[in-house]
Amino acid sequence: MDPFSAAGVSLTPLEGGWSGETFLAEAGGERTVVRIYADPRHPEHAAEIAASLLRLVRGLLPVPQVREVRRPDPAAGMPALLVTELLPGERADLLVPALDADGLGRVGAALGEVAAVLAGMPTLRGGMFVDRDLRIEPFDMDLVGWVERHRDDLERMDWHRGEVEDLLRIAERAQARLDTVDRTSLVHSDLNPKNVLLDPGTLAVTGVLDWEFTHSGHPFTDLGNLLRFERAPSYVAGVLSAWESRHGTPADDALDLARAADLVALVDLAARSGSNPVATRAETHLRAIVDQADWHAVPD
């Protein structure tokens, strides 16, 4: 018998993620969410970092309250885990397809506000959080170097040398654009409708989930994620309007910086094309950008 069953806890996998490590737990009439960090690729302090991030932003954004954090116990065969409250609402990606233009605009504004709040939380340098105190280990996020580091993987995906060279030229232009913003901020790094809960009646945000990839980085990163695949005009206008209201960046400039910043994620995902539907879609998207030499391009 596993330790959860032995303790009278029933675990049901939650839909929406690719990790298979997030579960709905029920015990004593209480429902909570349990994230199990069993994959050896997780950083050593992943559960503690996630808990600290939730505590950091709680009160600024709707995030679950932390109930328990456990460090791994190799001797007992127990991975690290994080237990949080179960928030109300439905995943935005399940609600968005049925919305009209007005609803899409309202959701866009709500998600744009989340991205704007995150971008308004300043940090001293870019890098990864490495412990529960959220100490930052700096990294070099030069786009040209990032493409070079993924060259072999892209070529294994049948990208020929000329396409990679074209991508490098786009990366050089995008990096010059990104360098016009000379600060860093908190970045969720996976901010999209799949990781946001909405009240189905009011379309207000009731939860921002899955902080696994959060780091300190470029302030327009999360905005780029929100605008990567979701291109409905009313949604895009809502996102950009919320951003401009908080930060004052004109919509066209914000969109250009967002799409430039999103190249980092697109390159990383494209290099893993075939591993999941999002990565495969990202590669198709990146190929369109290279074909048209424009980071605003979309596949035909």
From TrEMBL:
Alphabetized PANTHER family for the sequence = AMINOGLYCOSIDE PHOSPHOTRANSFERASE-RELATED-RELATED
What is the name listed in the Swiss-Prot or TrEMBL entry for this protein? Aminoglycoside phosphotransferase family protein
Source species, domain of life: Bacteria
Q: Where is the signal peptide?
A: none
Does the keyword section mention RNA-binding?
Answer: no
GO MF terms listed in the record are: transferase activity
Q: Which residues form the Aminoglycoside phosphotransferase domain?
A: 11-247
Query: What are the protein's UniProt keywords?
Result: Transferase
In its keyword annotation, does this UniProt entry include Cell cycle? no
Q: Which organism is it from?
A: Nocardioides antri
